[in-house]
Amino acid sequence: MNEIVDQMGYTAYYFLTLGMLWFRYILMAGIAYVFVWMIYKERLKHKIIQNKLPEKDKISHELKYSAISLAIFAASGILVVLMKKAGWTFIYDKVEDYGVPYLLFSIIALIFLHDTYFYWTHRMMHHPLLFKKMHLVHHKSTNPSPWAAFSFHPYEAVVEAGIVPLVILFLPVHTTALIVFFFYSNFLNVLGHLSFELFPKGFIENRILRLHNSTTHHNMHHKYFNCNYSLYFNIWDRIMRTNHENYFDTFREVTNREPEVAGDSNLREVKVQRV
Questions:
Q1: pTM of the model
Q2: pLDDT of 181-228, one tens digit each?
Q3: In terms of DSSP bridges, do strands 91-92 and 173-174 run parallel, antiparallel, or are they unpaired?
Q4: 45: closest CA among 238, 263, 266, 257?
């Protein structure tokens, strides 16, 4: 990492990082948008959680603030490089230094640490003193699209980008672990803002699987605000009793809807409308 920066310079490395962030964002949010929101929308419209999709101006809002957030996340990458150069981090360069089993453990640790970090910083930003200044931008998407995954106020973007600089102060991590973590985080972030429930019927009936959040879980947070704060797992919401009281029933209702079949008046009609 440091060698690359030394060869390229900080400015070039910043724009390289920014380009990679945009590539990942467009790849994941773009694929979700094209395939789910465009190509297969009619087939999947019975899976639209709120039975409606947002207007295009809401999506423009999400893209604008995502661009700002990605610029801040790229700056976080420069901060990580500076911290590593100063000897403040536990980032290591050779997998064999800790071995493959530890590499796998570190990925899992990153995910769980981020889940905890997100839950508590997220609840903090819902405090009346901080909400309008930090988090309202994200909640302008009361019915989000995949492009809302990084739609943050700059203050919130700084908090969101803080997880890696914080974790590398005490957890040995290899660059490979960070890359896998970033892709997992981006994928789940896009999935949480999809507005279509693609998790299978019966998912939350399984005692193990239900510990992972569904799209309905985060969609309800955007709709009702003061509930469902967790990111990946339904653990902190259970412990703190912040799950929406109708979360499980809503998931069941959405996943038990039947698709439209032409000529069958007994099947439930789901109307896709603009708000």
A1: 0.91
A2: 999 999 999 999 999 999 999 999 999 999 999 999 999 999 999 999
A3: parallel
A4: 257
| C-alpha angle 250-143-148 in degrees, rounded to nearest 5 | 120
DSSP state of 48: B
Which 3 state secondary structure label does DSSP give 92? strand
Residue with structure tokens 């995949």? 146
Give the pLDDT confidence of 144-188 residue by residue, as tens digits.
Answer: 999 999 999 999 999 999 999 999 999 999 999 999 999 999 999
Q: What digits encode the pLDDT tens for the residues 33-49?
A: 999 999 999 999 999 99
Using CA atoms, how far apart are residues 190 and 187, in angstroms rounded to an integer? Answer: 5
Nearest to 79 by CA among 213, 169, 186: 169
Which residue pairs from 103-107 have beta carbons closer than 8 angstroms and sit at least 24 positions apart in sequence? 103/174, 103/176, 103/177, 106/171, 106/172, 106/173, 106/174, 106/177, 107/177, 107/180, 107/181, 107/184
